[in-house]
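Slide 14.
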Amino acid sequence: MRFYHPMEMSASTSHESFEISDTSQVGAARRAAVKLAEDLGFDEVAKGRVALIATELGNNLVRHAKQGRMLLGVVEGLNGKSVVELLSVDSGPGVADLEACLVDGYSTGGTPGTGLGAVRRLSDEFDAFSTVPAGTVVLARVAATTAAGSAFLSKPRSEFDVGAVALPARGETVCGDAWSVVRDGRRLALLVADGLGHGPFAREAAVAAVDEFENASFQGPSEVLGRVHEQLRSTRGAAVAVAQLDRDSNEFAFAGAGNIAGRLISGVVDRSLVSQHGTAGIQIRSLRDVSYPWTEHALLVMHSDGLTTRWSIEESKHLLQRHPSVIAAWLIRDHARGRDDVTVVVLRRSER
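Slide 15: predicted structure.
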């Protein structure tokens, strides 16, 4: 039986980052996570799950990690309702036996909680990756339902797995980047935009790019980019890239202007995508679609220039098998420039 999926959009939101080195910071992150859940209309049981996950992840960072932080954001669930996303990120020492830590009841710190096993049990969606001594990234997503897991079982699985992390530059309260994903059955369109500079005016340009993209997502990428270019003339402008994918095709189409980077990567392929010179809203010399082969098990990674372009995961190849949000957080942890907004979007065709 084929299921018809109405067109679905994943709106761009940035994450809030909390450094976690003592228990007082755990409390601040927990309160912020619960506030997100309240704003989304979570019931008391679901808010309680968010609080417990934030507390357990935060305590793990305090007791066992170095350079730990928690990223909090909102993503769009497959049922069309928003979901709280919590990412625990650290730079070591890593976990030698992650599977053991995921057994409910396992704890190395003598805590009253039940470790990562409890986090997995309380989450609607969960994944983790760790290497010694590089560190660990843990993903937990919670939806506004009482029973963990039910929100992600209410609809057929998406044709694509998508994850993204967006963070504002230090000292800024808004991210000058924006991204959007539009799904239409077995097709997907993706845009990443980086407003010139950072702060509110950069954000205004990036969001304007998203708005125009969502009005014409499945026109050719270069045509979408041309429409975005005209729409951004009243703003400070932005670097923009658009990709369109079809589940049934072995190719995808791409068009970009400026310094949005794209890479197609797998265990056997590592290919950079080509953007044109120019800035949407200011000047673009040429607009054209470029087709690339969509190889088996490949990931498409698109990011703003807040991430170095020469990133590598050579020492963490098994990372490619993890959830796209885990991959995005890992890349930002190791390769963010640290002085600009940074956005990383990762997608793959889902396993059937």
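Speaker note: Residues 31 and 196 are 33 Å apart (CA to CA).
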